[in-house]
């Protein structure tokens, strides 16, 4: 078989990205924008877009994404390859110097769809062959005006907290006992719980939405119950974070926080709201279902 040529694209040949056609709708990552380079008004940088060519034909492609001010990729946002070119896809990931999480989006119930399952598992296998591993599977939700807008339960009061040190302390408490796989991975790494809480806070600051939107929740006796972060990510309005401190758990406050976060964004004009939680986080998944957020997609996160 002809040797592969693996390289980054340039501004002059960014059009090669579209030479590979993929009809499976599997392979795009968490952001999944229409591919267009920055020079054409898009959000992708040619030097962060890599292709594998065989006899001059694109047989695999990968595009890493970040917000305009980021200096390193935050996501592997596209990864796919031609039929029978799984190894070319894996080799493309191995040779590229870029590293970021890959969140593979698939339809709900994807394992019951033979063609979709085959396409998804091929990408997962190729990413694994390149050294990645599955961290967690997640549900991705999308609330729209066609969905019910739940009433506020009225059990908690909410107010903004301008002090990052206070927010950081609440995040530490929320993460000290958590079902979230990303948080648990961060806690297991260098810096432990403190580093995991700081990483979450850094994400909040990365969102291009107002800092004053972040709110703490309080019980009737004035104790902190948790935090919710209504936000905009680069795709639009989203449930940035929902967290209940350990001593306030067992009362279903995750639902109250989610309702407040949803209504907060709707009251500021949101016509769609994205959200996500791990499949294994059954309390939060139940809260999304109860609050009228349908599952729009599933996600397989590889790191």
From TrEMBL:
One Pfam family per UniProt: Acetyltransf_1
CDD domains per UniProt: NAT_SF
Segments traversing the membrane: none
N-acetyltransferase domain boundaries: 156-303
InterPro entries, A to Z: Acyl_CoA_acyltransferase, GNAT_dom
Name this protein carries in UniProt: GNAT family N-acetyltransferase
Organism: Streptomyces californicus
């Amino acid at each position: 078989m002809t040797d592969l040529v693996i390289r980054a694209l340039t501004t002059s040949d960014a059009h090669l990205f579209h030479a590979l056609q993929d009809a499976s709708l599997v392979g795009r990552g968490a952001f999944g924008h229409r591919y267009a380079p920055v020079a054409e008004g898009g959000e992708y940088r040619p030097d962060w877009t890599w292709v594998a060519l065989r006899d001059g034909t694109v047989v695999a492609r990968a595009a890493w994404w970040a917000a305009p001010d980021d200096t390193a990729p935050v996501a592997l946002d596209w990864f796919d390859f031609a039929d029978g070119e799984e190894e070319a896809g894996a080799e493309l990931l191995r040779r590229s110097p870029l590293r970021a999480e890959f969140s593979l989006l698939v339809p709900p119930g994807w394992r019951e769809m033979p063609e979709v399952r085959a396409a998804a598992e091929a990408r997962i296998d190729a990413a694994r062959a390149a050294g990645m591993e599955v961290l967690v599977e997640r549900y991705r939700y999308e609330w729209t005006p066609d969905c019910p807008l739940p009433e506020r339960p009225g059990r908690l009061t909410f107010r903004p907290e301008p002090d990052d040190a206070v927010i950081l302390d609440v995040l530490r408490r929320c993460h000290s006992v958590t079902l979230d796989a990303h948080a648990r991975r961060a806690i297991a790494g260098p810096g432990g719980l403190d580093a995991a809480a700081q990483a979450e806070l850094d994400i909040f600051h990365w969102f291009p939405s107002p800092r004053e939107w972040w709110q703490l929740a309080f019980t009737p006796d004035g104790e902190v119950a948790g935090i919710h972060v209504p936000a905009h990510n680069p795709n639009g309005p989203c449930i940035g974070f929902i967290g209940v401190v350990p001593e306030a758990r067992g009362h279903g406050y995750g639902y109250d926080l989610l309702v407040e976060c949803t209504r907060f964004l709707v009251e500021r004009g949101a016509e769609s709201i994205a959200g996500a939680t791990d499949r294994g986080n059954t309390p939060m998944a139940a809260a999304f279902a109860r609050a009228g957020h349908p599952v729009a997609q599933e996600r397989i996160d590889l790191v």
